[in-house]
Amino acid sequence: MDLLQAMRNRHSVRSYTNKPIEGEVKEKLSALIAQCNGESGLHIQLVLDEPNAFDSMMAHYGKFSGVRNYIVMAGKKTAELEETCGYYGEKIVLYAQTLGLNTCWVAMTYSKGKAVFQLDQDEKVCLVIAVGYGETEGTAHKVKSRERVMKVQGTPPEWFIRGIDAALLAPTAMNQQKFVFSLDGNTVSAKAGMGFYSRIDLGIAKYHFEIGAGTENFQWGKTSS
Fold first, then answer.
1. In the predicted structure, residue 169 carries a pLDDT above the cut 80
2. 123 burial class (0-12, 13-18, 19+ CB within 10 angstroms)?
3. Looking at the predicted structure, is the pLDDT value of residue 184 above 60?
4. How many C-beta atoms surround the C-beta of residue 40 within 10 A?
5. Mean pLDDT calculated for residue range 171-183
């Protein structure tokens, strides 16, 4: 399964079996997390066989069950932290899908006080990602039309359309999809709209756009909010 197929197949999953993440799957997932930390400067942590973070009223309200594994998205307190967590978190999420795992982005409906992680003094947790073997593969979400998330003059090139289609498959908070991609020559600019976790959502959408469009076809311009 390549990343484009993983993008199409991947849906949020909130209920998990008790099958552990181990062996080659664990090694490959851990290796990618280490790579992402090295590239980004984030402090992403994989927590396995730890049920307490999702044993709370908030988790039950969020309809989570059987969550024993999660990925902590954390890093230094900077203006770019949320977008960076979104970008690299989705890189991990899609790779996990290729390994046969299921995932769900979680911002509020877990117990931060019970979660296990380590932080330096200048770091904070943005959110976590539930990961494991789902009881189902989840269901697809509704998406906006291309026209609502892009600004172009004239007919856009095919690579840009492919990027937009990929971005529309990105998971976003409450499925709000509050982002816009603009094209000027071969320069693409991305803008986050107003809304909960929109900067994280923008990072996720930008990673999807890169996969769909192909990074050889464009360069990133200014990102704004």
1. yes
2. middle
3. yes
4. 17
5. 90
- The answer for residues whose C-beta is within 8 angstroms of residue 6's C-beta and 6 or more apart is 94, 95, 97, 98
Whether 35 and 41 have beta carbons less than 8 Å apart is answered as: no
Question: Which CATH number is 3-132's, of 3.40.190.10, 2.40.50.1020, 3.40.50.1950, 3.40.109.10?
Answer: 3.40.109.10
Query: What would the pLDDT profile of 111-140 be if each residue is shown by its tens digit?
Result: 888 999 999 999 999 999 999 999 999 888
Which residue type sits at 194? M
- Options 3.40.50.970, 1.10.287.1080, 3.40.50.12160, 3.40.109.30; CATH for 146-219 is 3.40.109.30
C-alpha closest to that of 128 among 194, 47, 192: 47
At 14, which helix (H) or strand (E)?
none
- Report CA-CA distances (Å) from 194 to 139, 167, 200, 202: 26, 17, 12, 11
Q: What mean pLDDT do residues 78-91 have?
A: 97
